[in-house]
Design brief:
This protein has five helices and five strands, in the order βαβαβαβαβα. By secondary structure, it is of the alpha/beta class.
Amino acid sequence: MPGKKILVVDDDQVVLHSCKVVLEAEGFQVHLVSSAREAIAFLESRYVDLMIMDVKMPEKDGLYILDVIREKWPLDRWPELPVLVMSGYPTPDTINDLIKRGVREFISKPFTPDELIESARKALTKKEKKT
């Protein structure tokens, strides 16, 4: 899986930096953005194999990102974009909202480097099996 492109979306710079260091050490190409609006702008012009995102962010949250990409590009541009959600507050309501939007992979903050790598690979493997 080296070379796969991953977009990480989080408003916490420490989380962004940590994800970049861990994932790049595994050979992934990592792009970082710190808001929902930046994530949508990035996805308008670039392809990624996986998006790893936080749910709770100021202004617009991760649910907003999912709604926009599904509404804006339904099944043509991002039909099978795997999304790995990381959250420090994984409430049942939030998880249900994410599942309704097609998210199947979750990781709770704080997580270890190994947990991040394993979750990212699992999400990418599921995508490869579908195609």
